[in-house]
Fold:
Amino acid sequence: MKFTTFLKGDQTRLGLVDGDSVIDLNAALPEVPASLRSALAAGVDLAAAATRALASDAPRLPLAGLRLAPLVPEPGKIICLGLNYFDHAKEGGREKPEYPWFFFRGASSLIAHGEAGIAPKVSVKFDYEAELALVIGRRVPRHVTQAEAPSYVFGYTCFNDMSVRDYQKRTPQWTIGKNFDGTGGFGPVLVTADALPPAAAGLKIQGRLNGEVMQNANTTDMIWGVAETIALLSEVLTLEPGDVIVMGTPAGVGQARTPPVWMKAGDTFEVEIEGIGTLVNPIRDEG
Structure:
């Protein structure tokens, strides 16, 4: 099954994707909260709700006519991994890290499919990163095993972890360069975990700048896969419904090229992941 989040006026709505159409789940089934995070937190069986909605005469909205929002507009946590592909670590002059390079993103950085990424006034070193992201479906207790970990994932989607490289390198922590407004492309659809290979392994992932392939890899190339990442995080903290984990980018980023390739106004970057779909974000200047 596929879900999306769209805007109705200034309100976000949880949608079930039915081919080229979308069913507003809350409108079809008022007992289902109108946001993905709220529905997951309430323990709603979204698979059962989706089956009921598909069998109903609920109105279908053309997907192409909707203005989308980030899939989880206000996640409790957005945890990202750096240097999580062997080839990306190598192109950055590093060997395999001994432990994942975790950092956090804030909700104010998120943008939807079709929404413009914002090239900041203060830097020209604006880079792209095609990534797989996942949404936690139910509370993950501390110290889960790798075997248990994938069962806590509700679904997977595309993410563009746009990075302002000079700000990223101003401090040993990457947070400042990863949290500019309008730099976290997130969507367009969330594919439920049961519709993909276990732990989203073996999926082709590609990043394209203005139609040119810049990144081309497979999720099996990750250093820490989904299961190990969740297990490692559970040693430290409690993951909650609606939390987002962004799994890192493969080689081919702009800063590692000779000469470097930076995104600018008028560009378009696409993230395509096999079995999930394509996230598209044009780029515009700040202001």
Summary: The mean pLDDT is 96. The two ends are 38 Å apart (CA to CA). The CA atoms of residues 26 and 32 lie 5 Å apart.
